[in-house]
User: Fold these one by one.
Assistant:
Number 1:
Amino acid sequence: MDRILAKKEYSLRRFWVEPQDIIGPNILLQGEVFHHVIDVCRQDIGSKFELISEGFAYFVKIIAISKKGATAEILEKREIQKLPLPHIKLAICVPKFPVLESIIEKAVEMGVSEIQLLSSQYSFIKNAEKISDNKWERWLKIIKSATQQCGRGDLMKLHPPMALLTWSQRLNQNPKTMCLFGYEGDQGVVEIKPHLKSLGSRSLDEAWILVGGEGGFSHQEVDALGQQGCQAVTLGAQVLRVETACIAMTSILKYELDLMRG
């Protein structure tokens, strides 16, 4: 049971469980995961599938079901590969919520380690008070669902909004941190690198991708970002939607930083 199967894969359903539900040789299914496994996916006694939690996948078999919970026996355990360095992180000036939800889902699948929400001059919201508890619960569910689907071993972190200019002052305090933001505005405001490939390579712990809201960045914000060492880059002649820019920059950066390896 305690064997670590480093490379064995399963073409099975996966579900996220909290670490406190792993008790000795068994895992308890309760609450929402119990409802999803038993009621939605109609698993029964004897059903086998994977449960994932904090860096490990557990191949299990249901051995007992009650009205409010189930017990799964751990048959095998394997370690899930951690996200390689540098960690890619997204900072997003909050767009409309349906757009943000799409970004959250795709960011999990793309291996983004965390998302920092920002309020800016042109962002959809200006402060955290406008985000209800129900929204946060929904976004955390999206993170868990995407984690299950892609088989990650960790939950992507999602941080409450803070002011863009306040956040920018914390950038690049670590020499192994890089920050890029897409900008198609006035060349006189900030130096724009012609493309991501021109940035060169260096040893990094984290690479931040900053994406503006539907209205982009103000000149004041762009100037402040440049002063904090955040590099403006172009993504081509076409103006991209927020969600497209997030996916494009993440994909390009993963390739350039050699993070596509299995």
Note: The CA atoms of residues 109 and 191 lie 32 Å apart.
Number 2:
Amino acid sequence: MTNANCQQMKRYWSFIVSLYFWVELFGSSAVLFPVALLIWVVTLPFDRRMYLLHQFSCLWANLAFRLNPLWHLSVTGKERIDPAQTYVMVSNHQSGADILVLFTLRLHFKWVAKRSLFFVPFVGWNMAMNRYIALRRGRKSSMQRMMEESKQALLQGNSLMIFPEGTRSKNGRLQSFKSGAFHLAITTRLPILPIAIKGTSLAIRKGGFLISRQPDLQAVILEPLPFESFSDLSPKELAESVYQKIEQELTSPPGPLS
């Protein structure tokens, strides 16, 4: 077989594997959505934080990983999380796989996500039922509304998950952090939970469709930062401090897989 034929076979195989992943992902979403809808209807009168529905969404993400033999996820530092604590959670953002990774933590939180995602069939509808927080980029009024809804969610005891880069990195390198998440942590006097995700930029290739084998995906839970440790910092200074902590972890040698 010629080199050209080998390359063609690799591209074909990559396409088939990627097609399987996306069909499995959205197919399972379609199958599980009626269950999510039932949970939402039944728990709506007494579960105003949507805790049970969010936990079901976490189970769905774990199922997506189990049905994908190409990826293996290792989570380290999970013992640093206090399940009774409300956090402002911040993570780097390399690809769409980050969302699945963070769901597997099984920690109760509200996502801050771009508004267009809420219109995606099944997945977006589930986001709306969970009362995740929508943001329309580039609109000041949307940003103000997001900040107010995020503050209220935090004060109600929901942790908040924000990608402070604002969008996915195009090359896997950490981009500068916006200050919104850190302003929320300061105003609500809540701790920050930094998370470093490794390997997802290779798991889903640039363009968003083709995926690749990635046996060493890692999520590293860094030491939480209590309010007292940053009470004298401005949001911009705090953003830079947390940026440095996540950057240091991303550039460190990979830890052992579990």
Note: Residues 3-250 form a domain with the Glycerol-3-phosphate (1)-acyltransferase fold (CATH 3.40.1130).
Number 3:
Amino acid sequence: MNNPLISFILPVFRNEGSIRITCSKIEELFHYKLQTFDFEIVLVNDGSDDGSWAEILEITSVNERIKALSFSRNFGQVAAMIAGARYAKGNAAVFMSADLQDPVELIEEMIQEWQNQKSEIVICYRTDREDSISSKLTSAIFYRFMKIANPKMPEGGFDYVLLDRKPLDVFTEIDERNRFFQGDILWMGFNIKFIPYKRLKRTIGKSQWNFSKKLKYFIDGSLNTSYIPIRFMSMIGTATAILGFIYAFVVAYTRFINKVPFKGYAPIVILLLIIGGLIMIMLGIIGEYLWRVYDETRKRPVYIIKEQVGKF
């Protein structure tokens, strides 16, 4: 009987210098501690403009267990995860970063939980991270908001996940653009085991997860996981309308008894600015929803593969 196959899916974007080390650590783990399992590594080059692809080609040329896909341009980390999942052949798949921030040592525990406890999904969530104060703060705010939409969301968030073949197939079948990876994993509803860990500091290269990407991901997560933003709009709109009618009644009454409470235009300007600002915010949220509807109707591919290396 063949050993169970574990697929590793590693999105790569400007990870030159750390890819070879990450793959070597995975290989060592299976050689010394997980001999009863087989493995494959699927590297997905997300349009890197450094030497990442050259490093990947060198690795794949000497190790047939390592395979690679290369996008025609940068489509984003989630697109790379989706592509890797669709090409993975394993009985289970592990999503992890290629920047050495996810401890390879946790893989053994993840596989044991999957085998012994019959956990179909094993999530390693971040209890702490060796990042800057600003990164920690934005992450805390983002995942605290996501926890409102999905109570199962760990406060530190996660990217380091093992999926059994069944949820992996479901994950690849979701046909949507602007995906929210964590939300999709939790939405599927399989048996989940949570493992806490401290995310390591990146020692090679610089993080490409900049503010614009974080903001885009925050919007995707907010709109994809629930209807909270549009319901919030409805509540704010209703409350503003009620207060507006009450204030209009007060103004009409004071005018009727010739006791105008103020002179000048300041209160009117203030009200116009507040209400106008609320309207613009609401229109922006509606626009985000409409853009996503339009993006779905275009049916463009989530990614475009320019080149692939290895036997898939």
Note: The chain has a mean pLDDT of 80.
